[in-house]
## 1
Amino acid sequence: MDENERKLGKAGSDYAKYTGLGFQMVVIIGLMSWGGYAIDEHAKHDTKWVTAVMALAGVFISLYIVIKSVSKQD
């Protein structure tokens, strides 16, 4: 395998890794938001505070996972 093929293989691997991280972020934030919405609906809150807090927690959790994954040495 020559140098160009190795670079292409690594680029494809990096693309898959970061695409997967993007999907993880969407799923985490979506599930946290959905959970907060369900709690707000069940409790019949007029202001959707639980949804906002859970969505924000999902953002922080997903950012933590991304930073941990990106800073990990390959």
## 2
Amino acid sequence: MLMRTDPFRELDRIAQQLTGVPGTWSKPSAMPMDAYREGEEYVIALDLPGVAKDAIDIDVERNMLTVKAERRPAATGDHVQMELAERPLGAFSRQLVLADTLDTERIQADYDAGVLTLRIPIAERAKPRKIAIGGESAPRQIGT
């Protein structure tokens, strides 16, 4: 089992609560991601809990896939007094360079239960294929 610890996380959280400003140790919020091959396509799953479907933007330019999302506050209004705010708000983005072997023209996107799933087919030109050997050659005659 692999465990990752961040000794400054609790200190940063307390500093942010007291000052309202992210501390020097805070990391930019990212979209946790899994990527794997399933049959003839690659699947990318990004965690975006609390993000509305209409606040997600997906672009592909050449081989660069960009996912942008915005998490807005759930509680707003004049009579709302926030007591604890640990969930990051604001705009997030993630960029991935896609291999030439993927068909970026046929990407499918689904969003369910806070998970954005992108399915990218493998391009036909990248799939393995058999090469036929053509023609019969006559036996070569060596000097008479």
## 3
Amino acid sequence: MSQMIFINLPVADLDRSMAFYEAIGFTRDDKFTNTRAGCMVLSDEIRVMLLTHEFWATFTERRRVDPATEAQVLLCISREDRAAVDAITEAAIAAGGMSDPCPVQDHGFMYGRSFTDPDGHIWEPMWMSPEAIKAGPAEMSHAG
């Protein structure tokens, strides 16, 4: 059985965040969506749970960081080619995100950009050539 990952992100405005993720290609899962949480599907194995700040606070007593000013994670997702990296980044900008808060990476065999959602969570779409994946770390050592 394949494993799934549920990425939980605190958001200030649930409706705005759900609209953003739909605009960049995620699918809404109404079975796990209510007024406190929205489930967005990236793939069969990956779900992003958008949680209101109040609901988020019921999961942990740790301080919630402000993703607009602090970074706790960089969420990297693969895309099928360079054009798809650019396409999701441009869709994010059009939907209210910010483009390239991290440097663009273009190493020939690997290409990556980044964007933020409206709350400031950083996503990094990337493409890597199938040949580089097969070659492994030796090929990656050529990265600038």
